[in-house]
Write a structure and sequence with these properties.
Helices cover 49% and strands 17% of the residues. By secondary structure, it is of the alpha/beta class. Strands 6-5-4-7-8 form a five-stranded mixed β-sheet, with helices on both faces. Strands 1-3-2 form a three-stranded antiparallel β-sheet. Helix 2 crosses helix 4.
Length: 202
């Protein structure tokens, strides 16, 4: 009985800490939409538009309740959401229900092991998903936006040929996931593209 009461009290404290601040929700949104990634403070500052001190304050509070964990590497500290946190599934579910279609798609693609890259068209009504080599995206998406899938090999070939359908996404659309450490980004940049990140994408 005491264990249940303690667990409920901890949950209430966590909920109170999470929803007491709009800045906290903005920071949390980044982690919940793409929970497999880790982020450092400047990435969160850019994604949320918040001052760095506000980002630092919210990271401290979310870490204190156990929703985030941190690790230091050199002079940079990285934060990641703890997907084992008791309220994680409910929090992520609420976040996905509260965002627009492109962010909902981003949230769905972020957990799909078969997804390598994702781009949103200029008008936001079309998305291009590139599969990881040897894999296929598993996500089922009814839209909007309408989703077109392409293998990594097809994408590389289309990139080299500057195919119009891919060119439109890269030149006028935006990067939906922001995973710029992927090697394929070197090829995109070498082809002369400077793809902007979608709103709120670190």
């Amino acid at each position: 009985m005491l264990t249940i009461e303690y667990s409920q009290e901890a949950a209430w404290k966590a909920l109170d800490a999470i929803f007491a601040s709009g800045a906290r929700v903005a920071v949390l949104r980044v982690f919940l939409l793409d929970p497999l990634r880790e982020y450092y403070q400047r990435q969160l500052e850019a994604a949320t538009g918040l001052p760095i001190r506000a980002v630092q304050r919210e990271l401290e509070r979310l870490t204190a309740i156990g929703l985030l964990y941190r690790r230091a590497e050199g002079n940079r500290t990285y934060y990641q959401v703890d997907m084992q946190f008791p309220l994680f599934p409910e929090l992520r579910g609420m976040m996905l229900k509260s965002v627009g279609p492109s962010d909902a798609l981003r949230g769905a693609l972020a957990l799909d092991e078969g997804v390598h890259l994702a781009f949103l068209s200029e008008g936001g009504d079309q998305a291009l998903v590139v599969a990881r080599p040897g894999k296929s995206p598993a996500v089922v998406w009814a839209g909007p936006p309408a989703v077109t899938c392409m293998t990594a090999e097809e994408f590389q070939s289309a990139l080299a040929a500057r195919r119009a359908d891919v060119d439109a996404f890269l030149r006028r659309g935006c990067d939906l996931l922001g995973r710029r450490d992927e090697m394929i980004w070197r090829h995109i940049e070498a082809a002369g593209y400077d793809v902007k990140k979608g709103a709120g994408v670190p």
